[in-house]
Amino acid sequence: NLTESAGVTINPDYGIPTPTLVSPRKTSRHEGQHGGPLSLGGFAPSNLEIALLKQYPFDSAVQRMTVVAKKKGTQCFSVYIKGAPEKVASLCKPETIPSE
Closest Cα to residue 46, out of 23, 28, 25, 27? Predict the structure, then answer.
């Protein structure tokens, strides 16, 4: 159930526009121990839905790309960064970076 607000579609599950939604398949392609499909731990696929709220494509100037995501039903956001190790490390707390 999406709503329109000033020409922008707002997803009520997230309270903001959600350009991309992803979720796992209902069952795994691999079979479980007893020959049946693996379950997702009793969760409905809609409970595992993740909204990709903002995507920053790779930029050679900063040598990284970033995705901001939010899992349905949670209050916090997740930020995923991929890029040159030294650039990503510069964004981290020093104590969280492995020595090797």
Answer: 23
What is the spatial distance between Cα 23 and Cα 25, in angstroms, rounded to a whole number? Answer: 7
Rounded mean pLDDT, 15-22: 70
**Which of 17, 23, 13, 21 lies closest to 75 in space, CA to CA?**
13
Contact 14, 53 (CB under 8 A): yes
CA distance 70 to 78: 6
Helix and strand counts by DSSP (H, E) for the chain: 1, 6
- Residue 2: strand, helix, or coil: coil
pLDDT beyond 60 at 2: no
Q: For residue 89, how far is the Cα from the chain centroid? A: 21
